[in-house]
Amino acid sequence: MQKLQAQDADRNGQAWNDEAYRAWINRFGTPEEAAAKIKRDPIGRLGGLADYLTDCNDQCVINLLGSHAGKALALSLLGANVTVVDISAENAAYAGKTAEALGVSLNYIVSDVLKLPIAEHKGRYDKVFMELGILHYFIDLEPLADLIEQLLKPGGTFIIQEFHPVSTKLVTTRGKRQIVFGNYFDQSLHTRSVAFTKHLDPSHQSEEREERTVYLREWTLGEIVTTFAQAGLIVSRLDEQPNMKINDIGLPKLFTLVCVKPGGTKQIQRKC
After folding, report:
1. Can you tell me the distance from the alpha carbon of 126 to that of 155, in angstroms, rounded to the nearest whole number?
2. DSSP E strands: which ranges in the chain?
3. CA-CA distance, 177 to 197, in Å (whole number)?
4. Rg of the chain's alpha carbons, rounded to an integer?
5. Count of C-beta atoms within a 10 Å radius of residue 3
């Protein structure tokens, strides 16, 4: 399996610390404006994850690669005790100011998720969730799956909503058309600009745009499900969703995987 060299992993991290704050202002407005939108409809801000993140009141929840923390802050308003882990200090700054405007507490850890000190977090969380455009940043999924298994309490739930591999590996959208291309089983690494750059004003972008290029590994659905199952998690459900925004041609756009850590209420539960 291909591995990133240390300097390349550092490049991925640096890409997410270059002008992210400005990008989120362009996308969501100031932190105060973002807070107002979240406060107005916290359940709506959860989007497609709302049905999977029910009964979070007083639960310990951790959002890995939580970015600007929009969904984490919505959960905070709904009564969850939320921790976010993300590599970007600029994401953390935007999230922190949004949390302040909302009047909620948010524990935001700026770290590579795979370097999270597990001794401080092992078995603490009722739910671990991740969403949209994150798995391809991992060149090896096994360490991530092992981390998630350790973070969860016995009986805890892991939820990931992600772009379906069919849509990322085989389909491109041009206007209102979907065009099929590519090799579903391709295991090679690819480079791409980090997601937030589309929200930057080109006139304000730095000339060193290569610094915002990251390495990606696009996984198949079989690889994803198998890795989390082999980490000791029980697959509870796998839902696939079509593209609801354009004239769909019958191909999946998203999937949601729900896994449970074996165990249950008889186990001693740690507080957040």
Report:
1. 8
2. 60-64, 81-86, 107-110, 125-131, 152-163, 171-174, 177-180, 189-193, 213-217, 234-242, 252-260
3. 24
4. 18
5. 10
pLDDT level of residue 53 (50, 70, 90 thresholds): very high
The identity of residue 32, as a single letter, is E
CB environment 86-111: b (16+ within 10 A), e (fewer): bbbebbbbbbebbbebbebebebbee
3-state helix, strand, coil in the chain (%, to 5): 40, 25, 35
Identify whether the C-beta of residue 89 lies closer than 8 Å to the C-beta of residue 18: no
Name the residue with tokens 């090799």.
183
Residue whose entry in the numeric block shows the structure tokens 């009564």:
79
**Measured between alpha carbons, how far is 19 from 91 in angstroms, rounded to an integer?**
9
pLDDT in tens, 17-29: 557 888 899 999 9
Give long-range contacts, CB 8 A cutoff, 24+ apart: 263-266: 263/153, 263/154, 263/155, 264/154, 264/155, 265/155
What contacts 124, CB < 8 A, 6 or more positions away?
Answer: 60, 62, 151, 153, 270, 272
pTM of the model as a whole: 0.85
Tokens of 199: 């929200």
Sheet holding 234-242, edge to edge: 107-110, 81-86, 60-64, 125-131, 152-163, 252-260, 234-242
C-alpha distances in angstroms, 38 versus 41, 106, 205?
6, 14, 28
Residue 270 corresponds to which tokens in the numbers above?
């740690």
Q: For residue range 190-241, what is the model confidence (pLDDT) as tens digits?
A: 887 655 444 445 554 444 444 557 889 999 999 999 999 999 999 999 999 9
